[in-house]
Amino acid sequence: EAGVVQSPRYKIIEKKQPVAFWCNPISGHNTLYWYRQNLGQGPELLIRYENEEAVDDSQLPKDRFSAERLKGVDSTLKIQPAELGDSAVYLCASNAGTGKETQYFGPGTRLLVL
Amino acid sequence: LAKTTQPISMDSYEGQEVNITCSHNNIATNDYITWYQQFPSQGPRFIIQGYKTKVTNEVASLFIPADRKSSTLSLPRVSLSDTAVYYCLVGSTYGGSQGNLIFGKGTKLSVKP
């Protein structure tokens, strides 16, 4: 079974530029999460989707961050414009959404904003 | 969700048993205790989960005392490949649709030859 797929794995951009990250969850997983992980810290939740609905986006900086999961499968996280402080690893995770199973994480996208 | 406290780092040698203790004084009745492992350049990976007493799987054991205010992850006979960051999380589920995972800074385990 394929795991959570993320692309790109690495991205270097200059500040004020836009950037997008893509995630394809495990097949059949209804719940999808985006996390941000700063160096030396644990992951922090940005947004959670149940199918195509964003059910928890309280930690998403909405002035510059946006996300979508139009068909309830893959998802895109966008930052526009990027700031120096956005440099981090962006992790995507998924689970079947029944409430008891573990989350499966992708390898992440490492973003460096110069 | 209950806050957790765990050591920032630990060192061990190959073949030793490693015990990482996590404090969660404000754990709620419905909360489970879950441990994740994270290698560099990878996402966290589920290790084990428990509610009380002892849970064992093929990679680790989890010991939870009666008051549930702490828990200990035990890794038997560690190898170099067990070098990673270990996160202790407390919440009402594995972090599925009914709950979110809140990670702390984790414990960085370094296994030496």
Write structural notes for this entry.
The complex is a heterodimer of chains A (about 110) and B (about 110). Chain A has about 110 residues and is mainly beta. Chain A is built from no helices and eleven strands. In chain A, the strands form two sheets. In chain A, strands 2, 4, 5, 6, 9, 10 and 11 form a seven-stranded mixed sheet that branches. A four-stranded antiparallel sheet of chain A has the order 1-3-8-7, with no helix packed on it. In chain A, strand 5 and strand 6 (about 55) form a beta hairpin. Chain A is globular. The model of chain A has no long low-confidence stretch (mean pLDDT about 95). Chain B has about 110 residues and is mainly β. Chain B contains no helices and nine strands. Chain B has strands spanning about 10-15, 20-25, 30-40, 45-50, 55, 60-65, 70-75, 85-90, 105-110. In chain B, the strands form two sheets. A five-stranded mixed sheet of chain B has the order 1-9-8-3-4, with no helix packed on it. Chain B has a four-stranded antiparallel sheet with strand order 2-7-6-5, with no helix packed on it. The radius of gyration of chain B is 13 Å and the shape is globular. The N and C termini of chain B lie far apart (about 40 Å). The chains are: A mainly beta (about 110), B mainly beta (about 110). The interface of A and B includes residues 96 and 103 of A.
